[in-house]
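#onboarding

Welcome to the new folks! Below is a worked example of what a typical request in this channel looks like: someone posts a single protein sequence, and someone else replies with the predicted structure as tokens. Don't worry about understanding the tokens yet, we'll cover that in week two.

Example request:
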Amino acid sequence: MDFIPEENMIMPDENNIELAAYGNNHEGTNHDTEQPSNGFWDHITLETEEPMMSPIQQNPDEVQKMAISDHEEKIIIQTQTHYEDPETPFPEFENNKAISYPNNGAASYPNSGADSNPNNEETNHETQPNKRRKRKSTVWEHFTIQTESAGCRRAYCNQCKRSYAYSKGSKVSGTSHLRRHVEKGSCAALLRSQDNNQSEPSSSKGATNSSKRRYKRASSTPQFVFDQDHCRNDIARMIIMHDYPLHMVEHPGFVSFVQNLQPEFNFNMMTFDTVQGDCIAAYQTERQSLRKFIQQGVAGRICLSLDMWTSSQGVGYVFVTGHFIDADWKLHRRLLNVVMEAYPDLDTALSHAVKVCLHNWSLESKLFSVTYNDQPLIMSEAVFESLKLHLPSNGQLLANNCLARTLSSIAKEVLGNSHDIVKKIRDSIKYVTTSEPHEEKFLVLKKQLQVPSERNIFLDDQTKWNTTYQMLVSANELKQVFSCFDTYDAEFNKQAPSMEDWKLVETLCTHLKSIFDTAYILATTTNPTASVFFPEVRRIQEELSKLITNEDPFVSNLARTMLEKINTYWKNCSLTLAVAVVMDPRYKMKYVEFTFKKIYNEEEAQTCIKMVDDRIHELFQEYSTMPLPLAPNYAEEFDVYIMKNLKTQLDQYLAEPPIRVHEFDVLAWWKLNQMMYPTLSQMARDMLSFPVSTVPCDSVFDTNAKEMDQYRSSLQAETVEALICTKDWMQYGSH
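Example response:
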């Protein structure tokens, strides 16, 4: 075998490394040279590997050199990239000047011990060993190649023993997928091993260099570090958020599931007691955050609402919710306490819960009003006198009823008095919807009759009166289809509603619509202001008053029953609602005068109007004595002079005509005009935060009082409060 003379070859040194390869796509290559057609490439596999060092310079003067003889073609390609490394990265060049490949015959490798055979035209590839250059990729520090079958080899991870494709026949898969396994954190066993290695100092230079290379290659990949405490905190918050039982951490299925996800998780530390403690800790953290928000972000007073839950043990739970408007004029609703009452039927149960809440949150001087459900709010004289010192208007606006409970009580009584007709409609719908052939016949008949209604019949949830109302409305619009359905199904004729029944259904829908529209506002509007419901309650009164005069006794009796309950609510809450509606620029005192003159005779109307006007001015005088947060320091005697010689803010506000717009944000208006009415805006902030409902939006249509489930009733009162309150606070994120 002939070699290129040494003087014609490019000698490698420490700063100039030449690689021998074949190709015609490099700059400087002679494209006219005929490419060899021999078996050389059957023994060579080209792999692209990432450099282990960063390039430091480029040398455009270095060129490729080629020497061609009669029987042998040798190509030497000099790389244009130099690497800064004190050691030679390619051990093949340590003892040789270049690598030469014969045109015909076996490849000749330096120091390999292989004999060249330049005289033979053909080479027996079966007997010739398939030799490759040394693997230099760092992935081979973590993988071992094993032969699975003839011509098929796979790479096995040394840590987790997972296998990946390496070669099949003459096709080699490369190392990219192996590198991803190492560098992207897919191998948990490798990550743990690396964490242990990082904590132990390396004793050899080679180990230090290898560690450095791995560190540089994986520096962009975040390393996962298991944190037992963080996982415990997440489990506690998951239990709170989804109402899971605390004992779930001891369930075998949950233990097995988590250990498969993270074997390092120590379940010896996760018991009922520990997770209960974690939930209490989460409660304390969220409570401190809310307390800070109330102290720093609430510029005015706070209104409370009380809702009593029952339990199978006969113990009551009072949910105390705070309602307030922050400095940015946003209305908030936060659950403050869940107070267990051993004797919920006592008259003082609610007042005790109020006292506990005020003490826990230091709100004695910030209370404005309390809204409760059907149970009367009775306070001891000592408690009331202590609160009276801080309450506006001497506590005359303190206690109010829940509008949502009042409407639900009315609907429940109406549906109860009409139980027979409601049951007949429900059974008719059940006959159609529970059988697929019946439902198909019903739809075909609806199409043939060309009924214009887009509604579909459905069965109601008897614990939600709005679903019963909507079921009746849908059935009433499709009564023509029901009346003709017996022609398709004779069995249905036995229970089909009569025409008289449909008239009663229509009457029920008319009566329930008046209260449904108001309850719908409570259920769909996030934290509506109190000013919205003065006109709503008045509308219900007006519609029911007209129905009382109906000649049909069923209609008039039904309306009379509903009106009695609405009048009771109006008597207890009309003053508070009237003061709130005055603070709405769309209504002011003009709307109060208009409403009372329609309800009462002239003398009664003037008495009620004067009562509201006096209460408004008394409140304004009380708020005028409070310091103004926006008042400048120099405004002393001059302010007094202005107040004596000009109209008050209240008189100026009431003298302006109401704003008549369809879409209006009352809180945004006060935020914009608080500089013009600094004292009146403080008063408006408190009045508009007054809650008309004690229940959340999803419970507005409930026909029964809420009941604590049996599992939570078995927990300690402090744990129940922590779980329920923290869940409420977590939905608002950071306060």
